[in-house]
Amino acid sequence: QKEVEQNSGPLSVPEGAIASLNCTYSDRGSQSFFWYRQYSGKSPELIMSIYSNGDKEDGRFTAQLNKASQYVSLLIRDSQPSDSATYLCAVNGAGRRALTFGSGTRLQVQP
Amino acid sequence: EPEVTQTPSHQVTQMGQEVILRCVPISNHLYFYWYRQILGQKVEFLVSFYNNEISEKSEIFDDQFSVERPDGSNFTLKIRSTKLEDSAMYFCASREAGGLTGELFFGEGSRLTVL
């Protein structure tokens, strides 16, 4: 079964620290990888996408992909209380248009 | 800013009743999706729709479910005979024709409660 695994958390970090969120996936043919943020009671919102091995930076966010290890991560620098949310890792399997989501990691940024 | 809109925001229904959830995707988007999220659980794919037909569906999307694009703007999800386990938040999402497959724009969701 194709799965996307995340630690459910909560991951608690102090304001200003780096938050590190991790995700593993089982479908070795997966092509595209995404991080969505979901505030409580709200819908998912895309924050990062990554398609090739290495790092991709966008503002305070850095996505990292290692296809050999089937591992994706998201780093949030200078974490703010407004970053407190659940972060969903999502993956496109080979030949599929649909995303498979992980169960999410809840991040709490303490002021 | 363009957005995906969904109605109703919350619907309560009796088991066995039919429910229609409505979505207006972003106007220049051509790919449409329904996902659901049972409270406290992961976001699950139901169905994708392109060019007036289903392009992919999950094992959740059984004969009780159907989708339709009745006009140029609406995209609907029908559940024919609701079950208790259909209680969930249902999210509509869309993406543009040239957009990458995972860069979806989600609506705010329709919460379905089946009693």
Structure description:
The complex is a heterodimer of chains A (111) and B (115). Chain A has strands spanning 4-5, 11-14, 19-25, 32-38, 45-50, 54-58, 61-66, 71-76, 85-92, 99-101, 105-110. Chain A is mostly beta strands and 111 residues long. In chain A, the strands form two sheets. In chain A, strands 2, 4, 5, 9, 10 and 11 form a six-stranded mixed beta sheet that branches. Chain A is globular and about 45 Å long. By secondary structure, chain B is an all-beta fold. Chain B is 0% helix and 52% strand. In chain B, strands 2, 4, 5, 6, 9, 10 and 11 form a seven-stranded mixed beta sheet that branches. Chain B is globular, with a radius of gyration of 13 Å. In chain B, 34% of the residues are buried. The chains are: A mainly beta (111), B mainly beta (115). The A-B interface holds A 32-34, 38, 42-46, 49, 51, 88, 90-92, 96-104 and B 31, 33, 41-45, 48, 50, 55-56, 58, 91, 100-109.
- Separation, N- and C-terminal Cα atoms of chain A: 40 Å
Order of helices and strands of chain B: EEEEEEEEEEE
| Shape assignment of chain B | globular
Residues in helices of chain B, as a percent range? under 10%
What percent of residues of chain B are in strands? over 45%
How many DSSP H or I helices of chain B?
0
Query: Could you give the count of β-strands of chain A?
Result: 11
Category from helices, strands and their pairing of chain A: mainly beta
The main sheet of chain B comes to: 7 strands, mixed
Overall pLDDT confidence of chain B: 93
Tell me the quaternary state: heterodimer
User: What is the chain-wise order of helices and strands of chain A?
Assistant: EEEEEEEEEEE
Give the overall average pLDDT of chain A. Answer: 94
What characteristic shape of chain A results from the CA principal axes? Answer: globular
Largest interface: A-B, 24 and 23 residues
Point out poorly predicted stretches of chain A.
none
- The helix content of chain A, as a percent range, equals under 10%
What does the radius of gyration of chain B come to? 13 Å
Sequence stretches where pLDDT stays below 50 over 5 or more residues of chain B: none
Rg of chain A, Å, rounded: 13 Å
